[in-house]
Amino acid sequence: MLSNYIKIAWKVLLRHPFYTFITLFGISLTLTVLMLITSFLDHLIGAHYPETKRDRALYVERIVMSDSSQQSMMSNSMSFKFLTEYAKTLKTAERVTIFSYFNGSNAYVGSQKIKLNITFSDADFWRVSDFKFIEGKPFNEQNIANGDYVAVITDDFKKHYFANSDAPVVGKNVEIENINYKVIGVVKGSPITRPFTHADIYFPYTAPKSNYQNSGMVGNFIAMILAKDASDLKAVQSEFQSNIKKIPLPGKQGGFKYSVLEVRSDPYLENFITTILNGGPGLKNILYGVIGFIVLMLMGLPAINLVNLNVGRILERASEIGVRKAFGAPVKTLMWQFIVENIFITFIGGIIALILTFTLIQIINTSGWIAYADLTINLKVFSISIIVCLIFGLLSGVLPALRMSKLSIIEALKA
């Protein structure tokens, strides 16, 4: 029976090419937009290179201090000393890395200026992240203890800085702001959409201008805590908060008197929402609601248009419906026939959308609009797309099918 429904649907598609084109255009365009959005969100918040362990990582990005009246607040990243004392000492964590936000710097090749993003980090940075080393190796504890002027650079910086970018550069020097550093490794870079690991050059935290010697609580460092397993995240968060509670209150920092102190350790998505959107309680649900509303609008509006097209297309087949009813076809059978037909048409549009999405993703990845972009249609994105196709087919097929199936035999034959 199902194969017959599909055969009928195929014949209907061929009967009116213009209506078929309009229908498939609406479906494929909508699904392409949805798949691109899904792919970008997966690229933004999913566990991808070089942050492949996000599912068991916590991010400590900001210290917030408030006065007793909650009228004044100071928020900043933390000092290396603070994170060493309260994050590095965690016993429930597998590993903790401390590193700086990337910040701007310059290098020169002759008279040409190269704008750079640089990061200062400890040796554990390379163990918590999963960078691919094209040449050499990362700096280690010995390099840091020795105060070595060493650097790990990205393949993109190598290409712009060295005349012969195909030759190995490990052991060569790069001059950054009048200081020479020896290159000990070259990595495939991280996209700027992953701000915790993005940079052009990575230095040990003991390198000049890192300001790791700050003795106060605030500074320009953040931390990434890696749990042994995703199930251990709550235990790690609990231990970290126990450490923070050891800080005596009230206190004074840089002339600011505070009575309330908050340092969060959150998974990436929660940290992203809280930091980027300056979120408060309930923001996560609000954001999900907004995303859900946008998706509903993207699906609902085209579905309404397709309902109208489908009603017109189905009513053209009123005589066929009347004949089938006259021979005893039940309402349920007729409804399922048209729903299956609509889902079949939607899946054809879904296949077209997959081809379009794949093509557009390749264009985005190779265009250089987002450096090191690695958008993909992975299994998760593909599964969501299939589910969307099914929902879309049902949304635009149920109402016309219900209206059609309730036509009386006389009305159908007259039409």
Automatic annotation (TrEMBL):
<dbReference type="InterPro" id="IPR003838">
    <property type="entry name" value="ABC3_permease_C"/>
</dbReference>
<dbReference type="InterPro" id="IPR050250">
    <property type="entry name" value="Macrolide_Exporter_MacB"/>
</dbReference>
<dbReference type="InterPro" id="IPR025857">
    <property type="entry name" value="MacB_PCD"/>
</dbReference>
<keyword id="KW-1003">Cell membrane</keyword>
<feature type="transmembrane region" description="Helical">
    <location>
        <begin position="381"/>
        <end position="402"/>
    </location>
</feature>
<dbReference type="Pfam" id="PF02687">
    <property type="entry name" value="FtsX"/>
</dbReference>
<protein>
    <submittedName>
        <fullName>FtsX-like permease family protein</fullName>
    </submittedName>
</protein>
<feature type="transmembrane region" description="Helical">
    <location>
        <begin position="21"/>
        <end position="41"/>
    </location>
</feature>
<feature type="transmembrane region" description="Helical">
    <location>
        <begin position="286"/>
        <end position="307"/>
    </location>
</feature>
<dbReference type="GO" id="GO:0005886">
    <property type="term" value="C:plasma membrane"/>
</dbReference>
<keyword id="KW-0472">Membrane</keyword>
<feature type="domain" description="MacB-like periplasmic core">
    <location>
        <begin position="20"/>
        <end position="241"/>
    </location>
</feature>
<keyword id="KW-0812">Transmembrane</keyword>
<feature type="domain" description="ABC3 transporter permease C-terminal">
    <location>
        <begin position="293"/>
        <end position="408"/>
    </location>
</feature>
<feature type="transmembrane region" description="Helical">
    <location>
        <begin position="334"/>
        <end position="361"/>
    </location>
</feature>
<keyword id="KW-1133">Transmembrane helix</keyword>
<dbReference type="GO" id="GO:0022857">
    <property type="term" value="F:transmembrane transporter activity"/>
</dbReference>
<dbReference type="Pfam" id="PF12704">
    <property type="entry name" value="MacB_PCD"/>
</dbReference>
